[in-house]
Amino acid sequence: MEFPVTQSEAQWREQLTDDQFAVLREAATEPPFTGSLLHVNEEGRFDCAGCGALLFTTEQKFDSGCGWPSFDDCVDGAIIERPDHSFNMVRIEILCAQCGGHLGHVFPDGPTSTGLRYCVNSLAMNFEAEA
């Protein structure tokens, strides 16, 4: 896949922490209940830690109890989905539509009318509180 924002591996490594690089560029997963954005309760926005693209808002966030920040919807056009057959499972991986960074997965078990649960690594995002 080609994305509007591209960088070399060296540029990504210079820009991101080692843990962010592992998640965004190598599809790693942070341990559950360890992410800094799991319990964000203030109003604001969640941007891609790789390219700064707006992904989610706090209005879309909910506490799913799964150990990672969860959202019932995303900003229109912010996410690309693709099948993920790793670890002998069938899941839907979610990527930033701008840079292709791995964010997490989306599941059809959300509690709201969307029926979706975007399960996202905190390391893949930055939070900006509303002023």
What's the quick description here?
This protein is α+β, with helices and mostly antiparallel strands and 131 residues long.
Describe the structure.
By secondary structure, the protein is of the alpha+beta class. The longest helix has 9 residues, at 18-26. Strand 5 (79-84) and strand 6 form a beta hairpin. It has a single domain (9-31, 43-129), classed as Peptide methionine sulfoxide reductase (Metal Binding Protein, Guanine Nucleotide Exchange Factor, Chain A, Beta Complex). The protein is built from two helices and nine strands. The chain has helices at residues 9-15, 18-26, and strands spanning 44-48, 54-57, 61-62, 70-71, 79-84, 91-96, 102-107, 117-120, 125-129. The relative contact order is 0.26.
Return the domain count: 1
How does the overall form come out from the CA principal axes?
A: globular
Radius of gyration: 14 Å
At the fold tier of CATH, the topology name is Metal Binding Protein, Guanine Nucleotide Exchange Factor, Chain A
Give a short account of the largest sheet.
Answer: 6 strands, antiparallel
Distance N terminus to C terminus?
Answer: 36 Å
Report the strand count. 9
Helix/strand structural class: alpha+beta
What is the level 1 CATH name?
Mainly Beta
- Report mean pLDDT, rounded to a whole number: 96
| Uncertain residue ranges | none
Strand order, sheet with most strands: 3-4-8-7-6-5
Q: What is the CATH-assigned architecture?
A: Beta Complex
